[in-house]
Amino acid sequence: MSNYSLNAVPTHIAFIIDGNGRWAKRRGLSRSLGHKAGFNNLKKIVKLCFEIGIRYVSIYAFSTENWNRPEKEIEGLKEIFLQYFNADKFIEDYPDVKVNIMGEYSKFGEDFKAIADDVIARTNDRDKYILNVGVNYSGKDEIVYAVNRMIGDGVTRVDRSTIDNYIYTSGQPEPDLIIRTSGEQRLSNFMLWQCAYSELYFPKTLWPDFKKKELLKALDVYSKRNRRFGQIKEEE
Prior knowledge:
By secondary structure, the protein is α/β, with parallel strands linked by helices. Helices cover 40% and strands 15% of the residues.
């Protein structure tokens, strides 16, 4: 555990990292530079989450809808992903962390698929911390992916636990807290199966400015939430 004085620390936290482009525009910079700033911040926030004692961290990095963005911006994001998932660098930056990439990431090309497969394989035996990253990810497509896997395995009867076993985060707890930065208040097709009882937090801060102080504030707000999961406590 950590030295941070929080009443409750989530087991699983998820981030919709929004606002990189607006952050860059306000500074007269290109959107690509905004994404670079965002990923530099991402590395720091992910490390901080693990230091605090959060075991599972999920990131929405690139959605299936993001392919509608300009080609130059997409190429810039691909270059960032290639650097971020370089296995040697990742293992150095994140000791004890297992990588789980959610989504059909092969669409980014053979070079990215090779990098992604390598870092997944080389961190696969780790179990202290888990980092889920959505790349070409869609919550609806994840459910379709799970259903097709069940069909392929000849599953004829399905309940909630069956689907839990076939989604990208199989074996993991559902997110306790989902944070979307920049003030937007929607999930945008992120972890739709897993978010049924997640607490939601929507700070106005743009992602590159979402620093340690903002994270601790979010966790403090979370620690004061009354999570009933459909039940009623005696004092109510």
